[in-house]
Amino acid sequence: MKNKLSAIILAAGESSRMGSPKALLTIGKITFLEKIFNNLQLCNFNEVLCVVGKDLEKIKIAHSKLFINYISNENYTDGQLSSIKKGLQSIKQDSEGIFLTLVDMPLITIETMRKLISVWTENPDKIIIPKYEEKGGHPVIFPRRFFDQLLNAPLDEGARTVVYGNPESVIRVEVSDPGVRKDFDYPEDLTELDI
């Protein structure tokens, strides 16, 4: 049975430090984007969207066998929140929240995703954030009641302004998954992928 969340993969960053679109980096024999997409598919989301910037065509060609709903963000240089806004404007009308995950964080486990979804199902009006070793991470779930705040948030402050502005509505979920904190920004970071 599908949950009522729209999963949004944020993949519109310029990847200037990495030198290659992060969606196309590989983990084992598959790309970061394919790994994340496959995991999301196993979590029964209402839909899965991927917001992409200047590398849209390159990413689409590399993933032609995957049924991914791509959203183009022409304003990708405006930062991550601009992609979140694009995603929000594209989700299904019956979605009750968004599940935001980043394309450069492919190590998040299916178990972690399912745990966050489970907590949200019990608390559908709360913002759900994973916590590993007392530090917050991703993915993050925002219920529909915060969509307007996200859409109206200043681009330079990002989605965190909505989190910090509603502390009573945030549930931080302890997980044993270091993947919620591990992103890949530089080529040397990839040496950690001993897969």
- CATH architecture, by name, is Alpha-Beta Complex
* CATH structural class: Alpha Beta
- Helix-strand category: alpha/beta
Fourth CATH level, the homologous superfamily: Spore Coat Polysaccharide Biosynthesis Protein SpsA, Chain A
Please give a structural write-up:
This protein is of the alpha/beta class and 195 residues long. It has a single domain, classed as Spore Coat Polysaccharide Biosynthesis Protein SpsA, Chain A, CATH 3.90.550.10. 26% of the residues lie in helices and 23% in strands. It is built from six helices and ten strands, in the order βββαβαβαβαβββααβ. A five-stranded mixed β-sheet has the order 5-4-1-6-9, with helices on both faces. A hairpin with a 2-residue loop joins strand 7 (127-132) and strand 8 (135-136). The longest helix is centred in the middle third of the chain and has 13 residues, at 110-122. It starts with a strand and ends in a 21-residue tail after the last strand. The model has no long low-confidence stretch (mean pLDDT 92).
Give the topology.
Layout: E1 5-11, E2 26-27, E3 30-31, H1 32-41, E4 47-52, H2 56-62, E5 69-72, H3 80-88, E6 97-102, H4 110-122, E7 127-132, E8 135-136, E9 140-143, H5 147-152, H6 160-165, E10 170-174
Parallel strand pairs: 1-4, 1-6, 4-5, 7-10
Antiparallel strand pairs: 2-3, 6-9, 7-8
